[in-house]
Amino acid sequence: MSRTRLTAEERQEQLVAAAVTAFSRGGYAGTTTDQVARLAGVSQPYVIRLFRTKQELFLAAMQHTVERIEAAFLGASEREPTLESLGHAYFGLLGKRELMAMLLHGYAASADPAIGDPVRTGFGRLYDTVRDLTGCTVEEARDFFAEGMLLTCLASMRVIGPEAVPLQPWSAELTATYPETKFD
């Protein structure tokens, strides 16, 4: 049986997916390009040849994460351009623990100016997308993102989502307002 060679673009996408997995587990400081290479089934020098540095690879993984969220918002707005529909779309992404952890690791690594500027730009892109798609006010957008961050943290801690652990009294109270929702 012969193996199909991946195009350069497909290989890059494969490496970014492996980077999301690796960085979501170990964060920026705790992940090596060698770990990403092993997950992708390529050599570490190949990773460096495509991305030059671990930092560039991390930023590509963050960009991928932002693009996934933005795509979910755009898809939801085609059906109904409201904060509620965008919120349901984001809720569906909470089951993708790697994306949620990648997002949090990106925010945590933002003290580094070379990482922080692109991460803030990505967050701003999501903010602008939500405002543009829904026409919501600044206050409504702030509440939307505040609740989204709470949900991101709860999903990352496995309080909600497909891998949720049994609820504790505090988490039962916090999540009581969220209906049972299917995670993608």
Automatic annotation (TrEMBL):
Keywords: DNA-binding, Transcription, Transcription regulation. Residues 32-51 bind DNA. Gene3D superfamilies: Tetracycline Repressor, domain 2 (1.10.357.10). Residues 9-69 form the HTH tetR-type domain. InterPro entries: Homeodomain-like_sf, HTH-type_TetR-like_transc_reg, HTH_TetR. The keyword Transcription applies. It comes from the Bacteria. Transmembrane segments: none annotated. The keyword Transcription regulation applies. This is TetR family transcriptional regulator.
